[in-house]
Design brief:
Oligomer: single chain
Number of strands: 14
CATH class of the largest domain: Alpha Beta
Largest sheet: 6 strands, antiparallel
CATH topology of the largest domain: Glutamine Phosphoribosylpyrophosphate, subunit 1, domain 1
Strand content: 25-35%
Structural class: alpha+beta
Number of domains: 2
Number of helices: 3
Length: 222
């Protein structure tokens, strides 16, 4: 499986992607050791069901809209996606995911010719688009503009929020325990979204299929 990760820092973002299995990735090791403080992160491990194993097909994908960097990652497969309008947001690779991302941004740009002020309305509109897109297949997706993070569930997504007092977490697939007190400040609010729960001693919440959750700088607001 191949993967990538995007970190937001203020209005900027940096993305690391590599079309190699994660266990062979020098970028994965680099990101582990590189000291990055980020307000929003989207990471993706791809099974490459659609599109060849190439850099241009590797998630997450990033585009500009309203002077903001938007980032998108998708888990699932969609049929008939090439019929969707994308306008000037042309896909670079050959995945259904990137095509759908371009379609979402195009629909947003059409609905809001000027930069909107009510961002909750914007993300509710994205959810309506996702309701239509999931009829084409499986659409578990993350989308962010660096301030807000939205997770839409078609089949399987989970989330949790960590805040002070921070404790320890034990990973489910590895005998590793992480003490978050050593990596956080008391004012931090950290939310994590994943396909499956990652830890065994924390209270993960399942997103119901056909619904979404929205976070603002780590705090769940919808």
């Amino acid at each position: 499986m191949v993967g990538g990760i995007t970190f937001y820092e203020g209005r900027g973002c940096r993305t690391f992607k590599e079309p190699k299995p994660c266990y062979q990735s020098t970028i994965a090791r680099f990101v582990q050791e590189y000291p990055i403080k980020s307000e929003a992160v989207i990471a993706h491990i791809r099974q490459a069901n659609q599109g060849d194993v190439l850099l241009e097909n590797t998630h997450p994908f990033t585009r500009e809209l309203w002077g903001r960097n938007w980032t998108y990652a998708h888990n699932g497969q969609l049929e008939g996606y090439k019929k969707l309008p994308v306008g000037h947001y042309r896909p670079i690779g050959k995945t259904d995911s990137e095509w759908v991302f371009c379609c979402i941004l195009y629909q947003l740009a059409e609905k809001y010719p000027k930069k909107p002020t009510n961002w909750l309305t914007v993300y509710r509109f994205i959810a309506k688009l996702a309701d239509q897109l999931k009829l084409m297949g499986v659409l578990n997706m993350l989308i962010s503009d660096g301030q807000y993070m939205m997770a839409y569930c078609s089949t399987d997504l989970h989330w949790l929020t960590r805040k002070a007092p921070f404790g320890k977490a034990k990973l489910l697939d590895n005998d590793i325990e992480i003490d978050f007190q050593q990596h956080t400040q008391t004012t931090d609010i950290v939310s994590v979204i994943a396909t499956k729960p990652l830890t065994g001693n924390e209270n993960w919440h399942r997103i119901q299929p056909g619904s979404f959750v929205l976070f603002h700088f780590g705090k769940r607001i919808l």
